[in-house]
Amino acid sequence: MTGDAALMLHRAVLEALRADAELSVLLGGARVYDRPPRRMLPPYVTIGEIATRDRNTFDARGERHALSLHAWSEHGGRRQAYEILGRMDMLLDDAPLALDGHRLVELRTVFRSVVRMRDGRLFHGILRLQAITHPLL
User: Which fold does the domain 5-74+107-135 belong to in CATH?
Assistant: First the structure.
């Protein structure tokens, strides 16, 4: 079954993160969600927005995707958030993910940041990736 490239990218990233044993240790399980369960306590990761734009060239159709991943930490603080971001970066930057119906041309990290939330106890890590996809003919 083929579908939208952004949806296929979302699925592949979710599967890659959930399958990684080291990330699971950092999170206390395969705690990677599209939308976390209610009242989920950190640490966990959520897949955020994916913004897609055309990236057509003279000889190929394609799309550029900006994908955000969010790491949430409480008791482990800033350090834990950075460790989670670092592991996701290692897993995904230039990863050869398989996308049903599409070819992943490039997947690169473009931004990492950790901020303390207003409540003073929760840390929010953000990892932004850029992907380029071409449809398979």
Answer: STM4215-like (3.30.2000)
The tens-digit pLDDT sequence of the chain (137 residues) is 457 999 999 999 999 999 999 999 999 999 999 998 899 999 999 999 999 998 877 777 899 999 999 999 998 899 999 999 999 999 999 999 999 999 999 999 999 999 999 888 899 999 999 999 999 97
Q: Are 129 and 17 in contact (CB under 8 A)?
A: no
pTM of model > 0.70: yes
